[in-house]
Amino acid sequence: MTDSTSRLLGERVSQLRQLQSMTLEQLAAASGVSRSMLSQIERGKANPTLAVTQRIAQTFGISIGELVDDPNASASIDVVRGDDPGTVFRADSECELRTLSPLQLEKNIEFYVITLQPGAELASAAHFEGTREMFSVSQGSALVRTGNSEVALLTGDTAHYRADIPHVIRCEGAEALKGFLVVSYR
User: Signal peptide: which range, if any (predicted)?
Assistant: First the structure.
């Protein structure tokens, strides 16, 4: 490792240890890495093996990449532009469905904005086992149906429901329905 990498690793280990209110002795016991080695790592004086680095990362519940990554080294803001046509999944006279989630990221949660015209609906087939949705109405009124259950929603209401069975969001009012949809995959 270069001196800057050793320094960065040491600072990161020290920071994580302090955030979890751990002493060097506690971290040593939890990771199986000696106290003296951990002290040297934190001071940037040691070049730990991959196995040692892995044990430290596992103790903090993170990957080696997260342990050695400098959060200031790369841009930490992803922007989804409102005028990007690539974010629109459906746009017709009845429905507009646009993602608010960065498309390039693998994720277990997705965010959408939905606009439905009066009487229109967004019907979805069952998603993967364990998938849940949360729909929040920002304008208008909706009917959400999943399986044999259904509920009416007004502006400001939010429904949380199973999405691993067929489900529908329908505009029930005389005005357009607008809302935010969150899909979480397990």
Answer: none
- What are the CA-CA distances from residue 181 to residues 32, 60, 108, 124, 178 (Å)? 44, 32, 14, 13, 10
Q: At what angle do helices 24-31 and 50-60 cross, to 10 degrees?
A: 110
Q: What is the pLDDT of residue 78?
A: 76
For residue 31, what is the enclosing H or E element? helix 24-31
What percentage of the chain carries pLDDT values higher than 70? 92
Structure tokens at 186: 């397990």
Residue position matching structure tokens 């600072």: 11
> What phi and psi values does residue 159 have, to the nearest 5 degrees?
-115, 140
Q: Which residue has the tokens 């959408």?
A: 112
Cα–Cα dist 181/106, whole Å: 18
Q: Which of 105, 100, 163 is nearest to 134 (CA)?
A: 163
User: Rounded to two decimals, what is the model's pTM?
Assistant: 0.61
Contact 117, 94 (CB under 8 A): yes
